[in-house]
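Slide 14.
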Amino acid sequence: MLRKIDEKPEADKTVPDSPKSDQNSAQSQASTDNQSTEVAKENEQKEEQLPMSVHDKRVNIEEQMNDLSHQYAQLRNDLKTNLFSEKDDFEAKKETLDNYLKTLKRDEKESTEKLADTKAQNDDAAKEHLAVVNADRKEQEQKLSELQEQLNDLNTEINTKTASLETLQTNLAKNEQSETDMSTSIKEEKDLQKMMVLMEKQKESIDTLYAERKKLKEQINSAQEDIANLNSKAADLNNQIGDINKEIVNLQQKARNIDDQMKNDHNYRIETIAGLERHIQSLDEEHKKIDDELADVNGNIDYLSKYIKDVFHSAYLVRDVYLDKDKEYYVTADDFDSDTAKNDLFGMVNYLESKLQKPVTVVSTFYNNHVHEIIDKKAKDQHIAIPNVVNLFDQLQKSDNPDGKRVAIPDSSDWVTRTDVETQDVFIYDKKQNLLMTAEYFDKEIIDRINYYKNDQVVKTNIYNTQGQLSSTQSFNKNKELSEQNFYRTDGSIVLTVIFEKNKPVSYQLFDKNGLLEHDFNEKSELITWWLKSVEPNTENAVFVGNHSDLLYQLVVSVNEIDSKNTVPLLQNVAKRIDDVIKLLDEQKDIIELFVQTEDDLHAIESKTNRDISVSVINTASNGTLSLPESLKV
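Slide 15: predicted structure.
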């Protein structure tokens, strides 16, 4: 009916409608709509009038109760999360206020100590220094005065000596003039006899003149030496006086500097003390303000804590694990044999990739010749990104020159071959119907392994990779126990031999490319540790996830010394052993985030935990049944 109503205008699309026709059309439309509504109401009334069985009523009620139980559980969980978020906000504010209060107290302490230190400061040392400088200056001035007196005395003596020298020099000149006069009188005498008499008379006078001259010269020389010595001493005194004058000037400048510094220090202390007192007063006021805010925050935290405890009977929050999309996540696994191990591995991968919206990396040390195909198929089935795979055996078995030969079952007239229609597995018998070998297929096309039999007992198994290359061989003893397993590189050379005793490995022999024994490990943990050190995983921006009891997970954490903040362990069967789990969490306080397998495990931790913790369920499948609580009261 609705389709016809919608199609009706389409028929008249090429012809414009008149206002009247529009009105008729509208009336017709309304009439049709009313008829449709009336028919729908009649149908509903007929359906309501249909008798409902008691069983149907019970199912309907149960469905409503189930819906209510889910709604109630969700609302209760939302309320709990909201309360803890509110509490977290207050605790974050408390932490901020506590840190700020510590800063204030530290500032108050430092400012108070600085104020006391500033008030205790004085100019005693500077005054003492100034006194020493002034004393040195006075001492130098005293020396200057003494040296000046000595210089004056020397100058007086020099003047006296100089005057005496001048007298001596005058007398010497007179003596020399007397000799000249006598010589002249003798030269002027014409009479030889009178000359001889005159010379005889002057002989004594000349001797006296010579004796006096000699004496005068000696006295002059002595006086000159004395004056020279006195002048030298005077020069020394002048130098000393000059040096002392410079020292006095320096000391005077030093005294002025000290005096200026004392004035500056005094003014600085006054300003500093005033500033510190104002700052301390301001800090005290801020301190009181923060104390009041902190009291309010603590009151809110106490109220919320009591409210949470009263309502949910637990003061602790269990929330989802926080996943940092900026980090790389590595899922570790050493076990891939059991269904539980596979489910846990895929459960962790699925959970992480669904939340992170990007591929994770699977780090594994188990052997499976089709591990990549299995993981890829599982990822595609779950519509998640195909994870990266780093596998110990993959790396050991790699070769630069792989063998291109592909395994195939040859034809033989001596064999009787039978094929399983469903699995395509091939059974090969001899003419006497003795089982010789079986060929098992992976995904119905690729030979997975060939089992060789003797007396209806398997004695050897060849395992092949997806390319049909020999990957591993297993040898069994008469007790049907695995005795040896060899692993091969893709070029056909042997790389690892594992020796078993009673199905338990006792030796891991690692061979180099030349077939020579390189390492002989007693336990698989030694082989894994060697491998981890050789691959050196980047742990700076990584989070490692794995089964808490898994060998590889334990070794990755211990060998690489991974911080607990960068690990998320998976705990198994938590609900069945909740007391042991709580004990483990008490012993290992560094476990703050973990994965569990089921919702029951999560609820068990919620009811028993004695601290805040982050828990996420990797298997989110639910049976869809929840019962209503005894009371809907919060």
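Speaker note: The CA atoms of residues 204 and 210 lie 10 Å apart.
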